[in-house]
């Protein structure tokens, strides 16, 4: 491993930095993933459509739900109903501050923005940062339809100021999330000067009809200039913005750090780090035109929204998204029968598959990797880590184990992943001929343990599951830290998982 510059092992790090900088929200993360998948030849499909005449063995597809969750997969040309499906699951959301439905606030001559906390963020890290807004706006398109437009304001417009130390001598800084976490957006006097002193309500309603409005107009609920900025970045007129979902994000871009560029300083490593590795791993496993020729499985990645708040939503991991997709894929006709009018009958006769149980057969032989970032050892708090389980940055992806099933890992999964890691393509400057490193992690018995989508999906599907993630520091801070080399480790591991799963699955004999 090189000690200066950007080594081949870290070659994926700059690309990941581009990905995370373009993805301040789950909507943007899904959009970034779509751009990469489309460039790699994946075709968009929709849940509301029939797939029986669209999906064929050898094809590559993706679908989205709510614009914030995405599923992408490639179907092996030797696929048969009931065959295994190799899956990697990640999530697109991160702890953040979200604009309230009525966000307009003022105080002591300042314009302020009302926000609510999303997830378990380390909220004191959001103070004194150069913040802006991003998200989606629902707008009228001129044809009577309402469509989604992505919004990302690149300049700093908000800030949450700390109280000067002279006025606050407390040892611990624990801000009240309802009264002390509101960002300032500017001065009331400056806004009055900008608008010529005309009240905001008059600007909004002047010249408009007197039609009934179930809710107050946006410029009554939010500062008018905020609405104007959103409309500008959505590329529409202010009156065409019907509603929006906006979150705050730090405008400081992700970057390489450390004396030897061996670190990544970034927001949203948890969990865009594993979202990126999963999507890139799938794409690279299918980069060869012949990649699916001898494949009997389906290679699938799913990235959910709302993991940070428990996953219970229509597009979270606890929804029917993945089970519904798997149920439809499990009964897809094989290649030799895909054009038959009586395809199900032909499959059952020729391939000895009972279509009524194909879904259950697929689940029994499939495997899910739950990919969520892991904890690196923090040198200032070594006493917080179990003495024999202290993951290090740039030393490989971390297998997460918990006896109380906060993680879903067990021994058959570890056996599979070891073989996958052993067969992975090494980076160009690796000292070994093949393979990527792995690490193990458990929490101390006297420490709480977080969880992932792994346990809930393994329980819902009955599918073998393993939890893992690349190590990082400052998880849930506005500014996190990870290893530059581990991006490449994660991509290579997932690429190898997809390429070798069909062979390895049949060799791990546990019912």
TrEMBL record:
Superkingdom of this protein's organism: Eukaryota
InterPro entries in the record: Peptidase_M18 (IPR001948), Peptidase_M18_dom2 (IPR023358)
GO CC, alphabetical: fungal-type vacuole
Keywords from the named record: Aminopeptidase, Hydrolase, Metal-binding, Metalloprotease, Protease, Zinc
Enzyme Commission no: 3.4.11.21
One Pfam entry name: Peptidase_M18
Catalyzed reaction equations: Release of an N-terminal aspartate or glutamate from a peptide, with a preference for aspartate
Organism annotation: Venustampulla echinocandica
Entry similarity comment: Belongs to the peptidase M18 family.
Name by which UniProt lists this protein: aspartyl aminopeptidase
GO biological process: proteolysis
Single GO MF descriptor: zinc ion binding
Known cofactor(s): Zn(2+)
Keyword Protease in annotation: yes
UniProt entry tagged with the keyword Nucleotide-binding: no
């Amino acid at each position: 491993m090189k000690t200066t510059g950007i080594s081949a092992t870290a070659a994926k790090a700059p690309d990941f930095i581009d990905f995370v900088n373009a993805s301040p929200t789950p909507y943007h993360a899904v959009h970034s993933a779509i751009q990469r998948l489309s460039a790699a030849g994946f075709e968009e499909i929709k849940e509301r459509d029939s797939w029986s005449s669209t999906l064929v063995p050898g094809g590559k597809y993706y679908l989205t739900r709510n614009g914030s969750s995405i599923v992408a997969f490639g179907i092996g040309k030797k696929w048969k109903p009931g065959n295994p499906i190799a899956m990697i699951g990640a999530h697109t959301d991160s702890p953040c501050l979200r604009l309230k439905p009525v966000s307009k606030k003022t105080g002591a001559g300042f314009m302020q923005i009302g926000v609510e906390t999303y997830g378990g963020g380390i909220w004191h890290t959001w103070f004194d940062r150069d913040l802006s807004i991003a998200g989606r706006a629902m707008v009228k398109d001129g044809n009577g339809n309402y469509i989604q437009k992505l919004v990302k304001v690149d300049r700093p417009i908000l800030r949450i100021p700390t109280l000067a130390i002279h006025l606050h001598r407390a040892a611990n800084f624990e801000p009240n999330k309802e009264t002390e976490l509101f960002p300032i957006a500017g001065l009331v006097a400056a806004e009055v000067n900008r608008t010529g002193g005309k009240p905001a309500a008059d600007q909004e309603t002047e010249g408009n009809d007197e039609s009934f409005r179930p809710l107050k107009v946006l410029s009554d609920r939010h500062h008018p200039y905020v609405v104007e900025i959103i409309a500008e970045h959505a590329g529409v007129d202010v009156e065409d913005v019907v509603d929006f979902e906006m979150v705050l994000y730090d405008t400081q871009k992700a970057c390489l750090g450390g004396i030897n560029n061996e670190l990544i300083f970034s927001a949203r490593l948890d969990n865009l780090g594993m979202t990126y590795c999963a999507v890139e791993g799938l794409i690279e496993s299918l980069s060869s035109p012949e990649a699916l020729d001898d494949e009997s499985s389906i290679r699938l990645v799913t990235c959910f929204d709302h993991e940070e708040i428990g996953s219970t939503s229509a597009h979270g991991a606890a929804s029917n998204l993945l089970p519904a997709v798997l149920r439809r894929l499990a009964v897809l006709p094989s290649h030799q029968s895909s054009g038959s009018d009586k395809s199900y009958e032909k499959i059952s006769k020729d391939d000895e598959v009972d279509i009524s149980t194909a879904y259950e057969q697929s689940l029994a032989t499939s495997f899910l990797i739950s990919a969520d970032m892991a904890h690196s050892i923090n040198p200032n708090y070594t006493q917080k880590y179990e003495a024999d389980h202290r993951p290090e940055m740039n030393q490989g992806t971390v297998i997460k184990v918990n006896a109380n099933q906060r993680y879903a890992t067990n021994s058959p999964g570890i056996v599979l992943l070891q073989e996958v890691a052993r067969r992975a393509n090494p980076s160009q400057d690796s000292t070994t001929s093949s393979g990527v490193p792995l690490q193990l992690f458990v929490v101390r018995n006297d420490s709480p343990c977080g969880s992932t989508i792994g346990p809930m999906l393994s329980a819902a599907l009955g599918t073998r599951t393993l939890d893992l993630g690349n190590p990082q520091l400052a998880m849930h801070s506005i500014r996190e830290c990870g290893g530059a080399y581990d991006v490449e480790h994660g991509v290579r591991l997932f690429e190898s998982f997809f390429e070798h799963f069909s062979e390895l699955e049949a060799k791990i004999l546990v019912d």
